[in-house]
# Entry
Amino acid sequence: MFFALRGGGNNFGIVTSVTLEIFRDPPWYTFQLWDIGIIGVLFQQLQDVTVKMPDEVFQTSVTLAWHVPKQEFVVSERTVASEIPDLWSSLSFPGAELSGKSSRALKTLVFRRSTLELARKMDEMNPAGTYNYFGSVTVKNDARAFIALAEVFFEEVLYLQKSSGVRVNIVYNPLTIETIGKMYTRSGNALGIDVEDGSLMSKSHHAGTCSVLTL
# Structure
């Protein structure tokens, strides 16, 4: 929103008033890191929860990233909610119903922070001289489309793997029917998205480069 008010970088906007809906209490944040082989299961779960987001969940997302230090792909889930959601300790691999093969969560974090505290923490994660580049695409809420975009991501990252100064990821953010409906309390949206379009998924591509300038 604030980037939009600034005019997208090549213009400017004039703010006449701002109304913010704040959290009554600091929300709960959960983070789970998973084996990359479980990505299809995570996408299916994301599709299912996007159809009807639980009332206590403010935001949920799945992030696919290239981990530079480990030189490998990683996938994670994140939620922001008024209550601690039920978290999976393990998930079965696709097609493993009979074999029972499953993967435990590689890392689970649960904490409570104010939005300001979390924003400051995120700022600390970006070293001085970091430049961020963003792009996005929005598609129907379908796990098959999520996988197709992930396959493109896998291919494109091959060209960046040798660059130690580049961090790249793709974040899958639900655009629920409830959210689309609320847009109309403020005269709709610029893209003409309607409730009849059904739930959607916005994929944000983010690339960060660390550049140190020596004088």
User: Anything to note?
Assistant: Helices lie at 2-5, 39-51, 115-125, 143-157, 177-183. The chain has five helices and nine strands. Residues 210-215 have pLDDT under 50 and may be disordered.
